[in-house]
Amino acid sequence: VIKKQRAKLLKLFKSYSTIDVKSGKSQGHALSITEVKKLLSDAGLLHKRISEEDLLDMFNAVQIGDGNDDAGTLVFSEFEECTVCFAAFLYPSPFVPLAEKVQMLIDEQFSAVNLKQNKAKGIDRKR
After folding, report:
1. φ, ψ of residue 31 in degrees (nearest 5)
2. How many Å apart are CA 48 and CA 58, to the nearest integer?
3. What's the pLDDT at 61?
4. Most buried residue, 19, 109, 118, 122, by most Cβ within 10 Å?
5. Where are the alpha helices (DSSP H) in 6-122?
């Protein structure tokens, strides 16, 4: 599922990734905890279905022992791992395969974020 949805996830990642203060442009290489909070908030998940404490646990779990020099940020592969963690957390049923949970998260939550961003930019895909 992650491979199949990589383009959608990469677009989402880049739209929330670190902003260069000098140029005001997205660097597209890492997500801070603040940016992940913003993403989950925009998706209607933060505080409603995922607490900040749970988010921090998942955020830190994907970084342990990875050798990443940018502690405190997620590179794209870590964001993919975090997406799987979010899906498992949000859809805890043991009877639903993990791949389906990830697909539901992308379709039901993250797609809504992309729609909000497009409307904010004046892009209407229904035309």
Report:
1. -115, 130
2. 16
3. 92
4. 109
5. 6-16, 33-42, 52-61, 76-90, 98-104, 111-120
Closest CA to 79 of 26, 111, 20, 39: 39
- One-letter amino acid for residue 58 of the chain: M
CB distance 63 to 74 below 8 Å: yes
Residue 49 backbone class (left: φ over 0; alpha: ψ -120 to 50; beta: rest): alpha
For the chain, list residues with pLDDT below 50. Answer: 21-22, 122-127
Would the CA dihedral through 32, 63, 99, 30 be positive or negative? Answer: positive
What is the C-alpha separation between 117 and 95, in angstroms, rounded?
33
What are the DSSP calls for 88-126, one per residue? Answer: HHH---TTS-HHHHHHHIIIIIIHHHHHHHHHHTT--TT
Residues 6 or more apart whose CB falls under 8 angstroms from that of 118 comprise 124, 125
